[in-house]
């Protein structure tokens, strides 16, 4: 089974091939992963939030401002904080 990282890489690559005119509007939100405590504190102070989806497609399309995408493997589970942002 592929990791969430591998799935997200494949998604971003596919998107760039399918929609080259929009590829720079698909943005990764690097909230996951292990970090040094000092780095985690800096990111939190800068506004990083647990549970924010993995990707943002920053193309406003009435009536929506953008599209947020949460990547999961087949066995992945959405956390309570992710449910908050998805809702």
Order of helices and strands: HEHEEH
- Helical stretch tally: 3
**DSSP helix fraction:** 25-40%
Sequence stretches where pLDDT stays below 50 over 5 or more residues: none
Q: What general outline do the C-alpha atoms trace?
A: globular
Termini separation: 28 Å
Tally the beta strands: 3
Q: What is the strand content? A: 5-15%
SS-derived structural category: alpha+beta
Question: How would a crystallographer describe the biggest sheet?
Answer: 3 strands, antiparallel
Description of the molecule:
The chain has 87 residues and is an alpha+beta fold. Helices cover 36% and strands 10% of the residues. It has three helices and three strands, in the order αβαββα. It has a three-stranded antiparallel β-sheet, with no helix packed on it. The relative contact order is 0.20. The model has no long low-confidence stretch (mean pLDDT 92).
Question: Nutshell version of this structure?
Answer:
By secondary structure, the protein is an alpha+beta fold.
């Amino acid at each position: 089974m592929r990791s969430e990282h591998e799935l997200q890489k494949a998604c971003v690559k596919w998107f760039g091939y399918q929609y080259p005119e929009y590829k720079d509007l698909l943005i990764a939100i690097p909230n996951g992963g292990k970090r040094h405590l000092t780095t985690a504190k800096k990111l939190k102070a800068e506004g990083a939030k647990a549970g924010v989806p993995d990707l943002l497609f920053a193309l406003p399309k009435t009536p929506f401002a953008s599209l947020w995408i949460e990547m999961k493997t087949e066995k992945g589970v959405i956390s309570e904080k992710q449910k908050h942002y998805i809702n």
